[in-house]
Amino acid sequence: MLIGELAKQAQLSRDTIRFYEKMQLIQSITRNNGYKDYPEQTLQQLQLIRTAKNLGFSLGEIQQILEMTAQNEIPAIQVQGIFQEKLNMIDEKIAQLHQMRTMLSRLTQGEACPLRKDCPIPELN
């Protein structure tokens, strides 16, 4: 499948597909005429990439997942572990954002400003 058709089916730009190929998330085969041909499985890989990105996975994490799936199907217990690890990271980030929000809320309600020389700077944990 040529890049234009792949882009259309995957609902991605050609530049995005080229970027993913440069990052070695997908592979193509170069034809004799210089055009790149993408195997049918590339569409499934792009759908997996999109889903993983929507779940908050980085391209590095997605690359690891793709490497595991290329070897064999990932065991369910390992998938659960990957999801739990991401969930823990999200929970940690939510806690940090909540702490930042609380501090900013206090500052908007008149608490001493930590950005002035005479104000103590509270620390985020």
TrEMBL record:
Signal peptide: none annotated. Residues 1-68 form the HTH merR-type domain. GO terms for molecular function: DNA binding. Keywords: DNA-binding, Transcription, Transcription regulation. InterPro entries: DNA-bd_dom_put_sf, MerR-type_HTH_dom, MerR_fam, Tscrpt_reg_MerR_DNA-bd. The keyword DNA-binding applies. It holds the Pfam family MerR-DNA-bind. Coiled coil: none annotated. The keyword Transcription regulation applies. This is MerR family DNA-binding protein. It comes from Acinetobacter corruptisaponis. The lineage of its organism: Bacteria, Pseudomonadati, Pseudomonadota, Gammaproteobacteria, Moraxellales.
